[in-house]
């Protein structure tokens, strides 16, 4: 069915079709709508979910941990400060290996307080052991929400699917929905190795783990991260085979012969694709790579994608405040270290607090990257793009 | 509802011995008595704290029932999630048994850092029994003051100093805060009156809604008394009305154990090192103020039960 939906509506529709056993959530701009719409589904009987309207995001995610440990299929939604308030429990959820999916809207972290898009919220949680997938549009947010439930339950890892605040969350788009009855069929039942509700086989979850065992348990969690990419790829393929929309961990656009490349995340991927088209019409060998799956980092797919690139501009919608530039820049720079022919890199920090990025600006970035290709050197590795005083 | 020792003794242990609680630990007696009282299968959650630490050092666990520990401030929310999963899965026929849910938190995890989550759990009417094992300070981290610490008590963050004699503030009355939420059942108990405690747990698990029991948990280490005195200290708290045993249900207060003769608080506090300095203090202000607080709360409780 083809419908017009905002990103928030699309994620809420996915949640309705998934019909989770438990949703515990707390509203926050710009993800409030997801929680509102889902509450209506509950009150209209469209889902049979136990909805826990928690008194904070901290309690929402805590309830999700309890519910998932009890064997339920569990989801929530949040943004920005809400994710920051959940921060402590994100690590616990991942360590306890309880699958939970967060439908998240990327919004700047305070301060200054702001409600618009950047990626500082999820990037501050990148080391928490959660899967992170950044989507380009409402369709992808919808499809990925469904996929991530399956991935999380198979890998026993929690995951975040995110959209860019307002740009996607509130932008109306054409979205193709899967039939209601197909989603539960695609997901199947959650399979359990143990459950808190199995009173005949009691388990202790969350034991105190000291010097003698902690490291092994943490190592096994890292191991799960090491092995989740094939699961994501398999689920993406199953989804594509069934519903016709295929995704990959790294989204490549006109990369076959691209010499000058931009790597970006989220909705900027869509904007950059238009810039690529315009430049291709002028005969320029440009391409775009969108880091769709960000945690774990799809190292091999990313290396394969950029192998022919001479110059790469990496666009980060957040800064690490470490003087080392953005998160994506550091990741890409790190994986390229061992390659024989290292491409020239430049980091563009842009769009903080929701500052718009236009097609023309991205075209200008490509132009600049061509100049770097010509001169063979990068004057300044990290620039703050579109900010006064630079 | 009244339990008999014979009946309780015949039960399988759900909280095993051999854990690493101190000799004379009040919290461990509470865990054992509460689980003994439960007639349905239970799922337990614990907040970070002494009980969590001494009962589950991997690869050992004292819990013979399903148990989850999440973090310090969120056992109420965690168990709200477990209970919600139960409701969802029971509705779908995936769970057949009739289960009960118990959250354990110390006064740190309950009066202070976990108060919001507990308030939310009760307001949303989750059918969970929340047990606060109240030892009146943060014992797990080495005896720091909490909002449950009484007036005058020495802790490591309210030390008995040269100019300030221990904690200056009165205790927070958490039981009344919970009662203001109109839970299905609320009570105060202590293990020195085991039958009263067991009866209250059974009532709390029988009601269809949130319930709360604030259980006084003498701590030999933090209160500084000999380990064999734990039960005696628990009883003395009731006899001095420092810890009134009462319950609240359907809008009615009921005192469940009324001391024959209300003893002065000095008979309770002189048994514990945490109050030792008060007897050497330049005046009787700290002891007097504590006594006045206890009298005020006890008299108000009497009036509430008389007027019903």
* CATH homologous superfamily descriptor of chain B: Thiamin diphosphate (ThDP)-binding fold, Pyr/PP domains
User: Which regions of chain B are unreliable across 5 or more consecutive residues at pLDDT < 50?
Assistant: none
Q: What is the overall silhouette of chain B?
A: globular
Shape of chain A: globular
Structural class of chain A: alpha/beta
Q: How large is the share of residues in beta strands of chain A?
A: 15-25%
Architecture per CATH nomenclature, i.e. the level-2 architecture of the largest domain in chain A: 3-Layer(aba) Sandwich
Number of strands of chain A: 16
Q: What is the H/E order of chain A?
A: EHEHEHEHEHEHEEHEHHEEHEEHEHEHE
Q: Termini of chain B, distance in Å?
A: 23 Å
Cα-atom radius of gyration of chain B: 19 Å
How would you describe the oligomerization state of the chains in this entry? heterodimer
């Amino acid at each position: 069915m083809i419908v017009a939906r905002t990103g928030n509506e699309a994620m809420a529709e996915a949640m309705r079709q998934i019909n989770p056993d438990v949703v515990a959530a707390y509203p926050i701009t710009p993800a409030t709508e997801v929680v509102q719409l889902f509450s209506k589904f509950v009150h209209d009987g469209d889902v049979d979910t136990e909805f826990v309207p928690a008194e904070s995001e901290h309690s929402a995610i805590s309830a999700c941990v309890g519910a998932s440990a009890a064997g339920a299929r569990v989801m929530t939604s949040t943004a920005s400060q809400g994710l920051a308030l959940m921060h402590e429990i994100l690590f616990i959820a991942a360590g306890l290996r309880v699958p939970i999916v967060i439908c998240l809207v990327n919004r700047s972290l305070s301060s200054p307080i702001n409600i618009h898009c950047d990626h500082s919220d999820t990037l501050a949680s990148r080391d928490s052991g959660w899967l992170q997938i950044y989507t380009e549009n409402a369709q992808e947010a919808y499809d990925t929400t469904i996929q991530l439930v399956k991935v999380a339950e198979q890998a026993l890892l929690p995951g975040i699917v995110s959209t860019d605040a307002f740009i996607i969350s509130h932008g109306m788009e054409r979205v193709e929905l899967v039939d209601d009855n197909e989603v539960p069929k695609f997901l199947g039942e959650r399979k359990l190795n143990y459950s808190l509700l199995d009173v005949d086989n009691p388990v202790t979850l969350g034991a105190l783990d000291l010097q003698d065992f902690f490291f092994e348990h943490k190592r096994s969690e890292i191991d799960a991260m090491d092995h989740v990419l094939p699961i994501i790829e398999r689920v993406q393929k199953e989804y594509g085979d069934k519903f016709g929309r295929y995704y990959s961990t790294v989204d490549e656009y006109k990369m076959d012969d691209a010499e000058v490349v931009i790597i970006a995340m989220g909705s900027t991927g869509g904007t950059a694709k238009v810039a690529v088209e315009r430049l291709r019409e002028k005969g320029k060998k440009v391409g775009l790579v969108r880091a769709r799956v960000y945690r774990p980092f799809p190292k091999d797919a990313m290396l394969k994608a950029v192998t022919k690139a001479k110059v790469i501009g990496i666009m980060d919608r957040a800064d690490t405040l470490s003087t080392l530039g953005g998160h994506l820049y550091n990741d890409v720079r790190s994986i390229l270290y061992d390659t024989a022919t290292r491409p020239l890199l430049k980091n563009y920090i842009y769009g903080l607090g929701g500052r718009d990025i236009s097609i023309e600006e991205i075209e200008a970035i490509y132009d600049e990257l061509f100049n770097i290709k010509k001169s063979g050197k990068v004057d300044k590795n990290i620039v703050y793009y579109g900010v006064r005083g630079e | 509802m009244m339990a008999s020792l014979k009946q309780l003794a015949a039960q399988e242990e759900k909280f095993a011995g051999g854990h690493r609680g101190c000799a004379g630990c009040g919290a461990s007696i509470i865990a054992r008595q509460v689980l003994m009282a439960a007639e349905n299968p239970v799922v337990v959650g614990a907040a970070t704290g002494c009980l969590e630490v001494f009962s589950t050092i991997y690869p050992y666990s004292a819990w013979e029932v399903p148990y989850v520990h999440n973090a310090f401030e969120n056992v109420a929310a965690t168990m709200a999630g477990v209970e919600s999963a139960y409701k969802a899965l029971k509705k779908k026929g995936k769970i057949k048994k009739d289960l009960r849910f118990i959250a354990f938190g110390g006064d740190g995890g309950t009066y202070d850092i976990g108060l919001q989550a507990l308030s939310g759990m009760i307001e949303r009417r989750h059918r969970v029994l929340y047990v606060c094992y109240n030892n009146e300070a943060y014992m797990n981290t080495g005896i720091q003051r909490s909002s449950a610490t009484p007036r005058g008590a020495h802790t490591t963050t309210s030390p008995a100093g040269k100019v300030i004699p221990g904690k200056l503030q009165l205790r927070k009355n958490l039981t009344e805060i919970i009662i203001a939420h109109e839970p299905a059942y609320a009570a105060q108990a202590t293990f020195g009156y085991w039958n009263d405690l067991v009866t209250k747990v059974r009532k709390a698990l029988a009601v269809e809604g949130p319930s709360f029991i604030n259980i006084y948990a003498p701590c030999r280490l933090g209160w500084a008394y000999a380990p064999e005195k734990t039960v005696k200290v628990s009883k003395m708290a009731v006899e001095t009305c420092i810890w009134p045993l009462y319950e609240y249900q359907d809008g009615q207060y009921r005192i469940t154990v009324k001391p024959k003769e209300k003893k002065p608080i000095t008979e309770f506090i002189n048994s514990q090192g945490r109050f030792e300095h008060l007897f050497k203090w330049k005046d009787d202000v700290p002891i007097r103020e504590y006594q006045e607080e206890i009298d005020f709360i006890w008299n108000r409780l009497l009036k509430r039960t008389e007027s019903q």
